[in-house]
Amino acid sequence: MPTILDIKPLYHKAVQALSNVANSTSPDFRFEQAEYDEKKKFWKIVVSYLEPNTNVSTQPPHMTPWYDLPYERVYREVWINDKEEIVKVKIFNAQR
């Protein structure tokens, strides 16, 4: 079974893949979570990064303060197999 020490190179592989789709000049990538699927033999690595906020609210700022920020944090789940190949990238919705 893989160990927690195996995660760092997988995180860097996930960030490298997501760098191609990030729409920000300074995406501020962050490791959020990792899970290994014993049956399917792959890692699920969740990485978050900043994207320009395209959902700016028309409400007063005190009603929806997080919608008025210039950036929003988005989450992606990257599946990486035991050969360190990216199998899938999924949108991962975090609850506010």
Short description:
The protein is mainly beta and 96 residues long.
Please describe what this structure looks like.
The radius of gyration is 16 Å and the shape is elongated. A hairpin with a 4-residue loop joins strand 3 and strand 4. The termini are far apart. 14% of the residues lie in helices and 38% in strands. It has 96 residues and is mainly beta. The chain has one domain (4-91). It has a four-stranded antiparallel sheet, covered by helices on one side.
Mean pLDDT: 83
The backbone outline, from C-alpha atoms, is elongated
Order of helices and strands: HEEEE
Q: Work out the helix count.
A: 1
Question: Helix and strand layout, with pairings?
Answer:
Elements: H1 7-19, E1 30-37, E2 42-52, E3 71-81, E4 86-91
Antiparallel strand pairs: 1-2, 2-3, 3-4
Task: Name the descriptors.
single chain, 96 residues, mainly beta, four-stranded antiparallel beta sheet, 1 helix, 38% strand
